[in-house]
Design brief:
By secondary structure, the protein is α+β, with helices and mostly antiparallel strands. The protein is built from five helices and five strands; from the N terminus they run H-E-E-E-E-H-H-E-H-H.
Length: 138
């Protein structure tokens, strides 16, 4: 798995994150295929924590306007692409049944398009993370 905006599966994961709350309000369960995702709004950045269970294997902060991606944690996640793909398929099926397919597909189509401008990517080393409130809460 690559935490990089050039990777389609990663962009689909971010897209799922953007849809997550709305999906839950529409009674669509995006966790049913093993993807667990949490979002936190941090001013200009949005933190995405994702994994196949309660332990987040991927933690990134994304700023859409500056196109800056900070990778805080990126652990090995076997089956990442399959998990994201199965979740996207299940969400699309449930959205079709509820008449919400246009909204969901628009978000997924944007995720599949190559970005026009490259993103700046920063990897934050783990010792720097040790003092942050994110690690302290765990």
């Amino acid at each position: 798995m690559r935490a990089d905006t050039t990777d389609v599966a990663f962009r689909l994961l971010i897209s799922l994150g953007e849809l997550w709350e709305g999906l839950c309000r529409a009674r669509i369960d995006p966790t049913e295929h093993g993807l667990h995702l949490c979002m936190e709004h941090l001013g200009g950045y949005t933190r995405y924590s994702a994994g196949p269970g309660s332990h987040a294997r991927l933690v990134v902060e994304w700023n859409e306007s500056s196109r800056h991606l900070r990778v805080l944690r990126c652990e090995d996640w076997p089956g990442f692409e399959a998990t994201v793909s199965a979740t996207v398929a299940a969400v699309r099926k449930a959205a079709r049944e509820r008449g919400l397919l246009d909204v969901v597909d628009a978000a997924f189509m944007r995720a599949c398009e190559e970005p026009c401008t490259p993103a700046r990517r920063t990897i934050v080393p783990m010792p720097v993370m040790a003092g942050s409130s994110f690690v302290a809460r765990r």
